[in-house]
Design goal:
It contains ten helices and nine strands. By secondary structure, it is an alpha/beta fold.
């Protein structure tokens, strides 16, 4: 249930406008979760004395060629913005679905790693053979909106969540347990709408190395550790690193978490997109990532739902 606002929080809200005009109906972000330092929490144990639970998230989206592209790699000649149809940038993304995703799938299969797919619901209709291949590989389908568009632009957010869940349920035979907003976007009441629809975990909040409970108006919702650091969009499209940065950064982050995990286990996410990491000049570094991680003992390669079940069991639920 929603925790009552303290007098201090009520004063902060009044002074800073943390909530919109519908404050009585919307929970303050400061009330969504507690601040508990990781060093002060109960130590949760991974099976077989493992140190790190790694989950790989493959983001599979559908972009609408009739609208501006979700991201761009090539500006139009003379500057400005590309009006639809934005052929170069649409086809750049579409390469990932036609070619790149199959490279990622081959690498993960080689190392016996099953991914979680952050999936736009519309992909189930537009690219059914792709979704079927993911399911045959034992990958988990996680809701990622119906089409690639920020949550803040959805006129009927609750309806879109239900539509996405229905599409994934029809394709896989079961309802998705997890959710990620496009670009990790949320509105003030997104967590409440997700929990109300039956979503059990969300990975928009990249603020921890372990799962934690979020407060929602009804039901339950757990935040799972996602990443904007081991994520090919910031690494390559925003920070413009060379292709080998994915391996270097993943190795260095893993080494730290692996050492910390000797006394307090950690979770580590790796996020890739078929049109970015699935291209020929980057795929070998993704292969190196998988090779490096799998040669260590005490490492579990889990899907999001497996991390959720572990957390719930450790929490006594």
């Amino acid at each position: 249930m929603m925790k009552p606002l303290t007098p201090r929080l009520q004063r902060i809200i009044a002074e800073t406008g943390l909530l919109r005009v519908d404050a009585e109906e919307t929970m303050a972000w400061t009330e969504r979760f507690d601040y508990v330092p990781i060093v002060d929490r109960k130590v949760m144990k991974l099976p077989d004395s493992a140190r790190v639970a790694v989950w790989v998230i493959v983001n599979i989206e559908e972009w609408d060629i009739h609208n501006p592209m979700a991201r761009t790699v090539l500006p139009p000649p003379g500057g400005g913005t590309n009006p639809p149809p934005d052929v170069p940038n649409y086809s750049w993304y579409d390469y990932g679905l036609r070619v790149g995703v199959w490279r990622l799938k081959d690498v993960l299969h080689r190392y016996g790693i099953k991914a979680t797919v952050s999936l736009n619901g519309s992909v189930c209709t537009s690219y059914p053979c792709l979704v079927e291949a993911m399911l045959q590989a034992g990958w988990e389908l996680m809701g990622h909106s119906y089409i690639q568009r920020p949550m803040t632009l959805e006129k009927d957010q609750a309806g879109m969540i239900r539509q996405t869940m229905a599409a994934l349920r029809e394709a896989s035979g079961k309802s998705p347990r997890g959710w990620m907003g496009p670009g990790l976007t949320e509105t003030w009441n997104t967590p409440d709408l997700l929990a109300e629809a039956g979503i059990e975990y969300v990975c928009d909040w990249v603020n921890d190395d372990l799962p934690y409970e979020m407060r929602v108006k009804s039901g339950h919702l757990v935040s799972l550790p996602y990443t904007v650091e081991l994520n090919d969009i910031p690494i390559f499209l925003l920070q413009h690193h060379p292709a080998e940065e994915l391996f270097r950064r993943t190795r260095d982050q893993f080494d730290t978490l692996y050492a910390e995990g000797e006394t307090r286990p950690r979770c580590m996410a790796i996020a890739v997109h078929p049109y970015i990491t699935g291209v020929p000049h980057r795929i070998k570094y993704f292969d190196q990532v998988c090779h490096y991680l799998t040669k260590h003992s005490g490492v579990l390669f889990w899907k999001g739902e497996e991390i959720l079940d572990w957390y719930l069991s450790q929490a006594g639920r």
